[in-house]
UniProtKB/TrEMBL annotation:
Entry protein name: Recombinase family protein
Top-level taxon in the UniProt lineage: Archaea
Region (Disordered): 59-81
Any single Pfam family the record assigns to this protein: Resolvase
PROSITE patterns assigned to the protein according to its UniProt record, in alphabetical order: RECOMBINASES_3
SUPFAM superfamilies assigned: Resolvase-like
All copies of domain Resolvase/invertase-type recombinase catalytic, residue ranges: 2-81
InterPro entries assigned: Resolv_N, Resolvase-like_N_sf
Length: 81
């Protein structure tokens, strides 16, 4: 099983490290995933648009069945209105 970890910050000046650490830790502790089973998707872009490279890859991979659960440190990480 491949677990998708999606991380996003709004500006290039912000750092993804904290989100990356928390999503990977959750995947390992709660889902039993090994680091080799985790696919990380990273975006540095506004959450109001879905035309983000990593977000589009995540959605495409999910549709193809390439990954099982998708986790993000917060719901607005995926999209917000």
């Amino acid at each position: 099983m491949t677990v998708a970890c999606y991380t996003r910050v709004s500006t290039a000046k912000q750092n993804l490290d904290r989100q990356l650490n928390s999503t990977q830790q959750y995947a390992e502790d709660s889902l039993g995933a090994a680091l080799s089973d985790i696919e990380v998707y990273r975006d540095k872009s506004s959450g109001t648009k879905t035309a983000r490279d990593a977000y589009q890859r995540l959605m495409s991979d999910a549709e193809d069945g390439a990954n099982e659960p998708a986790i993000s440190p917060r719901a607005s990480g995926f999209e917000r209105e």
